[in-house]
Design goal:
The chain is an alpha/beta fold and about 300 residues long. It is built from 11 helices and 6 strands. The protein folds into 2 domains: about 60 residues, no CATH class; about 160 residues, 3-Layer(aba) Sandwich (Uracil-DNA Glycosylase, subunit E), CATH 3.40.470. It has a 6-stranded mixed sheet with strand order 1-3-2-4-6-5, sandwiched between helices. About 40% of the residues are buried. About 25% of the residues have low confidence. The structure holds iron/sulfur cluster. Iron/sulfur cluster binds next to α7.
Length: about 300
């Protein structure tokens, strides 16, 4: 009985670890090295009891919220420093920021410079294969002190040409959505999971998204919005570590490292299926409620 229970626990654990790995999560925050060793043992089927127990603990820890750590702009590694991200797929040896827990909130006046430092660190990035087809890196747009931040999937053709997120037709609809919330685009912060355009606007591959994510994580850490809106399933998956249909992730407030997070449809999808705008509006109203903004009654126009 005990053996059967242990076997099913290990099978469940192995499935869970495979899922984390598919998302590119290997390090389980700061418990990484030991957890990875234990996880490897479990996946290889050679875990000792203590390794299996350790891996169970580590896998649970992966869903815990990280504790704050001190922040200073010097925590961004200089170009000459080696990356500390373990086993992340890189196509160059350019450094990326280490995955660290959120730090205390940065004073508002320091945020523009901190964001500029992240942009400088990105440089003419060649860290993943998306560099090969891009024209411009799309870093972000908006207020470094925004209370509301939107995260999309990746740049399209217009964004790639202009170096700004959400400037094409989908961007116009996003602008309308923001206006319907009673806000201006300049009052929010907008970024994407990946900063370079995927070929033929395909979904970013896991290694591409996970290579680029530390930059977005640092942007969120610096801006520290009160509410995040994930636009589409890809943004939700990489922000929240969840995989599922957009329908299964909508309709509730998620937690991204202590930030209330709402999942809604990507504006590009809403252009293809305008009947879902009413549903998206419900999501935006939820975000407004989390922000303490009074919701106008009308839905955004195309
Ligand atoms: S998508 Fe991100 S990691 Fe990849 S090349 Fe562009 S900036 Fe670098």
């Amino acid at each position: 009985m005990t053996d059967t229970l242990q076997k099913s626990t290990l099978q469940e654990l192995a499935a869970r670890l495979e899922f984390y790995r598919e998302l590119g999560i290997y390090d389980f925050y700061r418990r990484g090295a030991a957890a990875t060793v234990a996880a490897d043992s479990v996946l290889a089927g050679v875990a000792t009891d203590s390794q299996a127990q350790h891996a169970v603990t580590a896998a649970s820890a992966a869903t815990e919220r990280p504790q704050p750590a001190p922040f200073s702009s010097s925590s961004i590694p200089p170009a000459s420093q080696e990356s500390t991200i373990p086993r992340r797929t890189l196509v160059s040896d350019q450094p990326v920021p280490p995955l660290v827990s959120f730090a205390p909130v940065l004073p508002a006046e320091q945020r523009p410079a901190a964001l500029a430092a992240v942009r400088e660190l990105i440089g003419e990035c060649q860290r993943c294969q998306l560099a090969q087809g891009r024209n411009k890196i799309v870093f972000a747009d908006g207020d470094p002190n925004a209370q509301l931040m939107f995260v999309g999937e990746g740049p399209g053709a217009d964004e790639d040409a202009q170096g700004l997120p959400f400037v094409g037709r989908a961007g116009q609809l996003l602008n309308n959505m923001i206006a319907a919330m009673g806000l201006k685009r300049e009052q929010v912060y907008i970024a994407n999971i990946v900063k370079c355009r995927p070929p033929q606007n395909r979904k970013p591959e896991p290694d591409e998204a996970n290579t680029c994510m530390p930059f977005l994580e640092r942007q969120i850490e610096i801006v520290r919005p009160r509410v995040l809106v994930a636009l589409g399933a890809t943004a939700a998956t990489y922000l929240l570590g969840m995989r599922g249909s957009i329908a299964s992730m909508r309709g509730r407030i998620h937690d991204y490292r202590g930030i209330q997070t709402v999942v809604t449809y990507h504006p590009a999808f809403l252009l293809r299926d305008p009947t879902q705008k009413k549903e998206a509006w419900k999501d935006l109203q939820m975000a407004m409620s989390a922000l303490g903004i009074k919701a106008p009654s009308r839905a955004p126009q195309a």
